[in-house]
Inverse folding.
C-alpha cells in the first residue's frame, strides 16, 4: 500500500473520519479553538497515545459507535495549558499536564480539568502519554478491584500491550507471581527479558493446561483478560478458589455471549471493567486512585512504557501499524514533529 503523509494544516487542526471503514479516510482538518468554560482548561497538545479502540472507530466497527457521526478520537494526551476557565485553581497557563481529553491528534483541545494531572518534570511529553489510561485501568483492576497481594499468582493476557505491561509493573511491585501471554516469539522474548518466568502463547489455547500444570492444579488467583471467545472460557478455568477475573475486553460483552456459571462454584468474582463509565459513576474513587498512581510516577517508583513515535503527518501509518498488532507498549503521535 502506498505510503502517503497527511498535510498538517496551519494550527488549529484535528484528526477526523467522515466515512468510517477505511483508514485512508482519516484526514487532518482545520478546526476552531474553544475558550474553556467552568472547570475546563485549553491545552496546546504535544503528544497523544494511539489505542486499538481508535483503529476500530476508524474502521467503523467499534461497539456502540454511531455510523452517521463524524468520528473524532479522544483519550490520552499531554501538553501545555494555554488558558484556564472559571473555577479552575489547580492549573494555570504554562503548566505541563497529562490525562484524558475529548479530542486527541489535534493541535489544541479544551478539556475538563478533573481528568488531568501535572506531568512529572522528569518525564517527556511522549513518555507521559504512555501512562494515563493503561496504568489507571491496571491500577483500578489490580489494586482496587482484585486486591492483588504479594505471593499471589496472576495471569496477564496480551502482556506486551499497554494495559498488559502496566499490569506487569504493578504485579512485580506487589510481589505477585506472573504468568503472561503474548502473540509472537519476539514479544514473548521481551517478557522474559523483564524477568517473567512463565511466558506462554496468547494465540494457542494450550496456555490453560500450562498454567494448571505449573501450579499443580491449583490455578491462579487473578486473571487480567482481553481475549475473546474460547480464550475467555479457558482463562476462567485457570482460576483457583476465590479467584478474581478482570475482563477488559468488549467483544464478548457486546456480542452477549453466554458464560457458564459452573466455575463460580469456587467462589469466583467477575469484573467487567470500563474505566470511563466507572469515572462517571464514582468520580471521587477513580480520581483518588489516579492521584495515588501519579504519586508513584512522581517518585519514579513506576516507569513509562516503551513506545514508538509517529509524527502527526504520518498518523495513518501509525493506525496501520497498530492494526497489525506489531507494537510493544504504546504508539505515540507527536504534534511537535512532521519529519
Amino acid at each position: 500500500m502506498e505510503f502517503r503523509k497527511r498535510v498538517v494544516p496551519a494550527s488549529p487542526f484535528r484528526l477526523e473520519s467522515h466515512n468510517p471503514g477505511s483508514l485512508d479516510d482519516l484526514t487532518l482538518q482545520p478546526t476552531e479553538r474553544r475558550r474553556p468554560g467552568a472547570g475546563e482548561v485549553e491545552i496546546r497538545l504535544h503528544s497523544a497515545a494511539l489505542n486499538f479502540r481508535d483503529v476500530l472507530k476508524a474502521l467503523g466497527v467499534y461497539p456502540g459507535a454511531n455510523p452517521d457521526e463524524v468520528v473524532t478520537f479522544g483519550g490520552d494526551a499531554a501538553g501545555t495549558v494555554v488558558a484556564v476557565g472559571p473555577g479552575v485553581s489547580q492549573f494555570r497557563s504554562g503548566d505541563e499536564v497529562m490525562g484524558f481529553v475529548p479530542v486527541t491528534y489535534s493541535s489544541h483541545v479544551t478539556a475538563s480539568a478533573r481528568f488531568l494531572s501535572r506531568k512529572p518534570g522528569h518525564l517527556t511529553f511522549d513518555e507521559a502519554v504512555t501512562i494515563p489510561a493503561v496504568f489507571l485501568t491496571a491500577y483500578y483492576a489490580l489494586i482496587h478491584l482484585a486486591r492483588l497481594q504479594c505471593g499471589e499468582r496472576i495471569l496477564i493476557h496480551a502482556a506486551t500491550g499497554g494495559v498488559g505491561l502496566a499490569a506487569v509493573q504493578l504485579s512485580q511491585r506487589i510481589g505477585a507471581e506472573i504468568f503472561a501471554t503474548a502473540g509472537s516469539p519476539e514479544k514473548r522474548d521481551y517478557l522474559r527479558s523483564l524477568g517473567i518466568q512463565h511466558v506462554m502463547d496468547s494465540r494457542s489455547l494450550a496456555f490453560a493446561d500450562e498454567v494448571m500444570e505449573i501450579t499443580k492444579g491449583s490455578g491462579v488467583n487473578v486473571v487480567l483478560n482481553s481475549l475473546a471467545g474460547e480464550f475467555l472460557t479457558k482463562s476462567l478455568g485457570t482460576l483457583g478458589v476465590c479467584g478474581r477475573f478482570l475482563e477488559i475486553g468488549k467483544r464478548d460483552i457486546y456480542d452477549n455471549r453466554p458464560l457458564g456459571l459452573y466455575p463460580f462454584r469456587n467462589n469466583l468474582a467477575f469484573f467487567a471493567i470500563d474505566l470511563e463509565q466507572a469515572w462517571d459513576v464514582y468520580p471521587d474513587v477513580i480520581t483518588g486512585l489516579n492521584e495515588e498512581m501519579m504519586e508513584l510516577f512522581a517518585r519514579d517508583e513506576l516507569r513509562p512504557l516503551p513506545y514508538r513515535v509517529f509524527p502527526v503527518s504520518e498518523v495513518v501509518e501509525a493506525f496501520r501499524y497498530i492494526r497489525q498488532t506489531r507494537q510493544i507498549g504504546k504508539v505515540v503521535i507527536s504534534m511537535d514533529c512532521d519529519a
